[in-house]
Amino acid sequence: MARKDPRIDAYLETAPAFARPILVRVRKVVHQARPGVVETLKWSNPAFEHHGLLAGFAAFKAHCTFGFWKDALIRSRESAKAAKLLDQLGAMRSIEDLPPDAAIAKLVRIAAELNEKGIRIEKPKTAPKPPVEIPPDLKAALGKNKTAKGTFDGFSPSQRREYVEWITEAKQDATRQRRLTQAVEWMAEGKVRNWKYAR
Predict the structure, then answer these.
(1) Residue 57 is part of which domain span?
(2) Model's pTM, two decimal places?
(3) pLDDT digit string (tens) for 184-196?
């Protein structure tokens, strides 16, 4: 039995007139292709879950879109025809732009299988950043305030980098000096650069 979310019904009621029949049909195909899929809202848009986030759709002023969370994996594992279908689903302006139900259902089943198997998108590993080089004026200012220097020395590399980049990215010397003074004051109080946002 389809698990429908009334929030999606409300979303469809307020969608532009051209988008409603497209999205209603997409919704129906998703439930037929993978019975038991769960509807929800993600980022204020209708979404479908099956062993994790599966897909979602959205309506805009002139087009609507239906996309898969693991779009890149589907593209890399399937044919160019699947990529063309995914592109087509990304910009539908009328019911005629909608691919055949069987083609959409096949993509839904592929995406569901990826989730069922726990296959994830591999994130490229980034090389660690080299240690931050402390500018001479910051070194000198910290040398005059042992409390601030102790705080700075106790920071993680990323916390040090935040202060150094904030100071060195100043475009004018007066701005740089103000930031340098402020940084030393904050560090003397034991504060990280973005202390206002820290929990």
Answers:
(1) 6-116
(2) 0.64
(3) 999 999 999 988 8
